[in-house]
Amino acid sequence: MSDRASILARAEETLRPLHLAASHAWWDSSTSATEEHERQRVEAELALSDALADPDLYREVSSARENGAEGIARRELDLLYHGLVPNQVPAEIRHRIVELEASVDSRFTQHRATVLGRQVDDNEIRAILRESDDVAERREAWEGSKTVGAAVADDVRELARLRNEAARGLGYRDWFALAVDTMEMDEGRLFETLGECDRVTAAPFARWKAETDVEVARRFGCGVEELRPWHYEDVFFQEVPVTGSVDTSEAFAGADVVALARSTFDGIALETGPILDRSDLFPRDRKSQHAFCIDIDREGDVRVLANVEHDSYWADTMLHELGHGVFDLGFDRSLPWLLREAHLTVTEGIAIMMGALAQESSWLRDVAGLDSAEADSLDAALRRRLAAESLVFVRWVLVMTNFERALYADPEADLSRTWWELVARYQLLTPPGHRSEPDWAAKIHVACAPVYYHTYLYGHLVANQVRAALEREAGGLVGRSAAGAFLVERLFRPGQSVRWDRLVEQATGEPLGATHLARTIEAGLGR
Ligand SMILES: [Zn+2]
Fold it and tell me: How far is the CA of 184 from the centre of ligand 1 (A)?
């Protein structure tokens, strides 16, 4: 066995069982938040990060990488290297980071806001902001959604300091720079892409927002200038308000969104049964309120955690999470274990593309069984909403990514002020007066999925670009088995054997950009 092969074999032998244990522990603590499970999770994550911190392995991998490895072995070494780098920091700092992340995450899982003297979960807050015409109640619900921020803010700042200390010890400017680099992204290129996205969305977003504000102000009988964040329906304004937009609830009356998601994938010849059998899909106490998909073992044990209610939101979410799931089931099993994973941007792209189906007229007709004439009559409004969602989401990512860059540039800064400046600039929201609460910390990603949000933006770009390629090459998506085959062959099977940006370019025939996103927006809103 060559030196290089033995390094890779040893790395896999060490990391694989630790990875497996950490996945199980994560699943257990998310489905049942007990002290015991949290302890096990921290232990498993520490063991994995201890292994990734091994200085000998790091030295061996670095030198093997410099000795001209190519092809599959080079990809393995690259991924291994990028996994090792963030862990080459003193054990004390590393341990403190893992413990703090787990503690913050657990507080998010257990936190319940109080609205009108009653404890409510995230689904109830969402319901109030969707349905209530009582502005005082809405304001309490919105403010309640932020109380978790105050509970964790000090620790989130501390996490940023610790991450920066770790990054600087490795020669990076700060954690932001390290995170982007080890995700195989170029920071300059990232901000060029953000700039491109800002340019193609600024004017249509401003137009859409002005029209929406007129509707929202009419609903609450106030002036447009009186609108504040709680007048909208999402606590971060990261989703399009349902009000004044198209109503697809008829398609979901009495529907089973899990079954709908399943038959969507059946229609493109991608199996989801093995995933659903292992999943935990409905709300319960002491269970994570979020949704995620996890590949436990890279050998077919793929699961989804969700808190399904039978509505459009959860239809989107189930399609999204199962989009991740079929990706994980689609890796070429003959690939080395290290390469049997997806780059975040590409798997997010597929998940976003699948989730978006829940608001396409053809999906509502062919999968959800909406009357054909009804579906046709909704088509223009649905395209408009899809465009609006892209706009709203891109503007939100601009807030998050710019905020995170600022957070790591200076964790001691007046972050509430930075947050609201970005929200006003990119989302065109009017900040509540005199608010100095740490609202930025109420977004779980800032603490627990740091410097991750821009991958969603790339995901949006991938979704639009892959969708365009499917229209061209498979005649569409819903009900097209050729679409499933395209996805498996060109995007799922290769895993990480090809670098993500090259993979997208190979699959779609063009480098990743905002062209197709701009077209989706134009098709929905007009010029
Ligand atoms: Zn996702």
Answer: 19
Question: Which of 200, 150, 222 is CA-nearest to residue 398?
Answer: 200
pLDDT at 383: 93
- Residues present in the chain in total: 527
State in Å: Cα 353 to ligand 1 middle: 10
Distance 415 CA to ligand 1 centre (A): 27
- Only one residue has tokens 């493109």, namely 268
At CA 452, angle to CA 13 and CA 195, rounded to 5? Answer: 135
Buried b (16+ CB within 10 A) or exposed e, 47-70: bbbebbbbeebbebbbebbeeebe
Could you tell me the distance, in angstroms and rounded to a whole number, from the CA of residue 306 to the centre of ligand 1? Answer: 12
Residue 496's identity, in one-letter code, is Q
d(CA 350, ligand 1 centre) in Å: 9
Answer for the pair 460, 352: CB distance below 8 angstroms, yes or no.
yes
Q: Where is 122: in which H helix or E strand?
A: helix 122-131
Distance in Å, CA 347 to ligand 1 centroid:
7
Nearest to 28 by CA among 17, 37, 15: 37
Residue with tokens 């997208």: 504
The residues whose Cβ lies within 5 A of ligand 1, an ion, are 351
What is the spatial distance between Cα 390 and Cα 457, in angstroms, rounded to a whole number?
A: 10
- Under 8 Å between Cβ of 476 and 321: no
What's the rounded Cα separation, in Å, for the pair 375 and 392?
24
**pLDDT for res 450:** 93
CA–centroid distance, residue 63 to ligand 1 (Å): 35
Give the distance (Å) from ligand 1 centre to CA of residue 323. Answer: 8
Query: Residue 455 Cα, ligand 1 centroid: separation in angstroms?
Result: 10
Distance CA 185, CA 179 (A): 9
Quote the tokens at residue 57: 């392995």
Centroid of ligand 1 to alpha carbon of 374 (angstroms): 30
**For residues 431 and 423, what is the distance between their CA atoms, to the nearest angstrom?**
8
Please give the model's pTM, rounded to 2 decimal places. Answer: 0.86
How many angstroms is it from 137 CA to the middle of ligand 1? Answer: 31
> Tell me, what's the pLDDT at 245?
67
Q: What is the pLDDT of residue 527?
A: 59
Identity of the amino acid at 471: E
Query: How high is the mean pLDDT in each 10-residue block of the chain (527 residues)?
Result: 86 97 96 92 92 94 86 94 92 90 90 89 92 95 94 96 95 96 93 95 96 94 97 93 77 94 98 98 90 97 96 95 98 97 96 95 95 94 91 96 98 96 97 90 92 92 98 97 98 97 96 94 85
Cα(147) to ligand 1 centroid in Å equals: 25
pLDDT for the residue 526: 75
**Residue 119 structure tokens:** 């404890």
Q: Residues 2, 69: contact at Cβ < 8 Å?
A: no
CA 220 – ligand 1 centroid, Å: 34
CA distance 75 to 477: 31
CA–centroid distance, 447 to ligand 1, in Å, is 17
